[in-house]
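step 4 of 6: structure.
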Amino acid sequence: MSDTYGHEPFDVDDFAYDDFAYDEHPYEADAGDQFDTVGARGLDDGFFALELDLLELPCIQESAIVCTELPEVGETVIAVYVPLSPELEIAGRRAVLAACERRLPRLFSHAVAQDGIPRSVEGAVREDLLLDRVLPQVARDLMSPAAMSD
Amino acid sequence: MIKLDDIRRHAADRPHRSAVVDGEKRLSWAQFADVVDRVTAGLAAQLPPGRPARAAFLAGTGWELAVAMAACRTLGVSCTGLDPDQHPDALTHTLRELDPVVVLVAEEHRALLGSCSWPAGEEALRVLLDGGEATAPGESPFAELLAAQPLRQPPAPPEQESFTVVPRGAAPRVAVRPAGAEERELGDHIEEFGFDASDVQLTSAPLWEPLAQSVTRTLLAVGATVVLDRSGIPERLCTLLEDEGVTTAVIAPAVLTRLLAHPASAGRTPSGRLRCVLASGRDLGRWVVNTAWERLGPVLHLAYAPPETGLAAIMGPDESLVARMRSGRAALGSTLVVLDQEDRPVAAGTPGRVAVAGHRLMERYLDDEQPFVMVDTGRGLQRFFVTDDRGVLDGQGLLSLTGRSGGVTRPLRDGAVDAALFRLESDLLNLPCLRDTAVLRVDLPALGDALVVPFTAVAVGREITGHRALSEACARRVPSIPAHVIAVDCIPYSPTGRIRTAELLEAVVPIITLKLQLEQSEHQEISA
């Protein structure tokens, strides 16, 4: 969980101003740099920055993140990814967890590999269906040593 | 879709060239003109009394739908696509707003349509596609319309406004586009992508999806061949790309990902004929962009097209290799601007709310709300639609989406069921009569929302006790979801200990389905 989350409303419009003054930074105009400022500002900006980071990962086929309340765990970010191959599943998991750690360092994140991600025709993740599919695996992971290493 | 006049013009120019291809069905332009002519006549004869204002369709794609949409266009009836995968409440909400007097419905969605009610629903004409047979008054099979005598003189109806459904959870909205918007859009697409009559277009997305529909319409309008794919199966798509000599395509993002992940596309070398693949870019990742370049060539165009604005931004194949994902430049005819909270344009590089202007913009929502702001970007005041997206526009006009105005959404969950599923996993770990087990929650046509629980018994001959113990554990913990317990030889795992669900389900679902069918027939025999 970030420093400010739950204490003050976050305004995406101002996320680039405070820590990254325009005049002092010649690269401010580059949109890519703006994402680097958002990690510790709030759930919303961290979540969207994580979404973008995962989209940029070439070591996984596709990904989706869902924020939900897990029984006995509380608020959790579930990062679901489709590995490129069975051999690259562990590498993909490490990359996804590294991105979660970077963008949402104070929120419990759990990475789950899946064979596919249910999406609408437009490509949007069908979050409810996805959670239905992954929750038994998440429950199993939380009782196994693999999850403890997260 | 396009009018009969335009179809006849193309039929005169190239009568034997394919116009619409759908599986084994291949319509030349001459045949397409003939069937549209007949269906227009059949539809005109069966329309409910009074001037029909609106039609809707609940179907994916197919030649019958393309013909019926062209007939509606010829008669001046707007034809709005509805997403069959949306919740029935959302579908009912949309139907009540649109109040269509004609609904084109595919056989597989008839039951869904039957569960919805709307003011004109009782008298509305239901045109049954895909060989559906009429069983109730007000239903008309497509074949019946096709049997009508051709029109001598096609009608010349006034231009009508068109509608696009904007998904918004349980209460979708309907965007109204002014008459003539489709023609302007057509011109923009031709100029942007260079479509012409020599093109062969593959549409592998349902026609209710606005981008797929508008591009397909454009290609038909220029006299190209349109190949409709219903399956989304990678092997079939690879075959179509090769055999039909496809030059342009609109592919749903999930289908594109599957295509690129499939071995059938790995052995494919870019043929040079394919020059443009359009897909919504919001949810596609780096791997798709890189792999598309490798397997299809420099063809992938990533579109940003909110339903209210039409195609607003596009990212070409070359720049997408170096730009961040979810980036794009304004499409022809669109203006992009990023606004602050007071609706003032912000400086380049400053994040804010993304707004779009242009002649493809909707006129209003159907409930008459006009959510526009007037902004002066240096070329006088323009009407902008403020999207739900946040983004950054750099000094060179590259837009990058960074988030959504509404913040993070959390899917609504039944906390009790989720907690019960967690406890069930814990219970199963402690069952001594099992060697291994897996709980899979599925939502399949054959089983509905159900738990599939494969297990490996602790020893040969102990399957019955394992089955009994698991069934009781499931019934105790999650009584609201039916559980199908089945013994298997082993449960396949990935290197991280993940259960290979697809592999496992592929093995057990046919057996469970067969068992259910046997049980059903036994019950029927007993009751008979």
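step 5 of 6: annotate
 - The CA atoms of residues 71 and 139 of chain A lie 9 Å apart.
 - Chain A has a mean pLDDT of 74.
step 6 of 6: archive
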